[in-house]
């Protein structure tokens, strides 16, 4: 496993980070979830990403149990705040001082730790003053409950404003967590250049496009039994955008490239994401331990300029690149 610095900081994270968005506490049994975490630790993954809203807090609970007994100083634990985890009352969501303070205290209990290495604003809050949010984050850093601050799915303007306030408050905004893959490149036009200027890294989610880049979905073929595309309570709604014949046919053309390199298509997709040096880590999830072990082999793989160019020829024309597609919450209706 290789490790990379997170933003303009001295913190190193494993370039493949284990995440439990659609698995722990929902799609897989707790024993299997713990086995996946064990597999991650065994291959050198030290960074673990979760959020309070995943499985309505249960993902944090399962991760805390799975990491219990591990040397805390050897781990980097990330979680997030924004969405509701309670009865969805008028103060149960957003980035107000009240919601952030209550959320971090609850997350620390569920994760069974005194602090998190990275606390991330899960979305931008269009209703709470950014000054209030960043001041609260600064207070958490000074209280020792949080070491570094990150965000998720913020656009370039929001990153600039958040970074400026963080500097004024003497804390480090070191990361953004966007969706990024061969098929979803909306950060490249604006978010990535701004991040490079500001010293912010990307911790990317869905690097294999919800499983489409593994090659297991085929044009005109049946959906694989037990796959994400068949799980209406999981990621089926999100993966539908990729289940188009032109996309699936293009993904099939990547198979010989991966084979020539001795890689699976999933490993190729991960190596492609990691070829971007503004990416500190790619988040991988798993429903089986062997998936973790296999995907971990993408760490350290270098793709030649010729391979990168060939990938762009095949899937580049089908990739989403419009920066306005960065996820933006609407005003809350609580």
List keywords for this structure.
globular; 334 residues; TIM Barrel; two-stranded antiparallel ribbon; 36% helix
3D structure, described in words:
With 334 residues, the protein is of the alpha/beta class. It has a single domain, classed as TIM Barrel, CATH 3.20.20.100. 36% of the residues lie in helices and 13% in strands. It contains 12 helices and 10 strands. Strand 5, helix 3 and strand 6 form a beta-alpha-beta unit. Helix 1 (30-42) runs parallel beside helix 11 and helix 4 crosses helix 5. The mean pLDDT is 92.
Q: What is the element layout, followed by pairings?
A:
Blueprint lengths: L2 E3 L6 E3 L1 E4 L10 H13 L4 E3 L8 H10 L8 E6 L15 H15 L4 E6 L8 H13 L3 E6 L4 H14 L3 E4 L14 H8 L2 E4 L31 H4 L5 H9 L1 H6 L4 H10 L4 E6 L4 H7 L9 H11 L19
Parallel strand pairs: 3-4, 3-10, 4-5, 5-6, 6-7, 7-8, 8-9, 9-10
Antiparallel strand pairs: 1-2
Helix pairs in contact: 1-2, 1-11, 4-5, 5-6
The number of distinct helices, counting runs of at least 4 residues, comes to: 12
How many domains make up the 3D coordinates? 1
User: Which CATH architecture is right?
Assistant: Alpha-Beta Barrel
Strand tally, please? 10
Structural class: alpha/beta
Helicity range: 25-40%
Question: Approximately what portion of the residues adopt beta-strand conformation?
Answer: 5-15%
Q: What would a concise description of this structure say?
A:
The chain has 334 residues and is of the alpha/beta class. It has helices spanning 30-42, 58-67, 97-111, 130-142, 156-169, 191-198, 236-239, 245-253, 255-260, 265-274, 289-295, 305-315, and strands spanning 3-5, 12-14, 16-19, 47-49, 76-81, 116-121, 146-151, 173-176, 201-204, 279-284.
